[in-house]
Amino acid sequence: xxxxxxxxxxxxxxxxVSAYIDGEATPAEVEQVEATPSLxxxxxxxxxxxxxxxxxxxxxxxxxxAGMIDRAMATGASVHSLADARATRDHRRGARRWLxxxxxxxxxxxxxxxxxxxxxxxGQNTDTTALGTGxxxxxxxxxxxxxxxxxxxxxxxxxxxxxxxxxxGGVLSLGSVSDGDLGGYDDLGVLASTARDRFAARLAAxxxxxxxxxxxxxxxxxxxxxTCEPELMATDGLITALRYFATATLDDDPVSVLVFEMATGxxxxxxxxxxxxxxxxxxxxxx
Length: 287
Description:
Mean pLDDT: 73
Order of helices and strands: HHHHHEEEHHEEEE
Number of helices: 7
Strand content: 15-25%
Helix content: 40-55%
């Protein structure tokens, strides 16, 4: 057993040994004390001291007691209290338990203070952008209204305003409607149904619109540039004019959707094609 005085025991070690003796140490702290010979020796010594002080002390003569006190005061050794060590240990453990909760509360307060500022700033930027976009649109509309209509074969800045050839070299029918990109799909039937509904909605809107007051100029009518139109019209004798064109992706592969008028007088007036990049027909539908 060690004979070192208590002032040679670090306060943290005294706290650890005190918790070990009181049965309040964690499994990791118990393992640490039992694996460290010096700490285990201190634990044995403190247990022995606890047993000694638990017994009623024998009466000491006053002169002997005074001499013991004088000698203790003369050595200048510091006195460690187990009660003080326990109080320090409980205070530190309480702080460790509350620290995560306090940290979370501090983060929450910061978020509550910062997020509204960011939202207000983002809203102002959005409004500014929207105003700028509206002004640009007004400028574009004014410019378009002052640009004279191009005649047959005329060009504006080198860009032709007449019907454009598709990738296969054929010129598409005037009056066809381009619907842009329909997005990505993994089911061919869903893609075909979506395109058919989009075409039907556009057709209904065009039929409900009032007729133009002047005849449309064939050289300025919007023409749709689409691939595979000549191939399909050459192989399908029942289709006449292209009325709708859109692009999409099917299982990450690019595809095209084309809707033609049919020459038959039956209930089905249109035929829809979904084709791949090589003009291979993936599906057709009459409606």
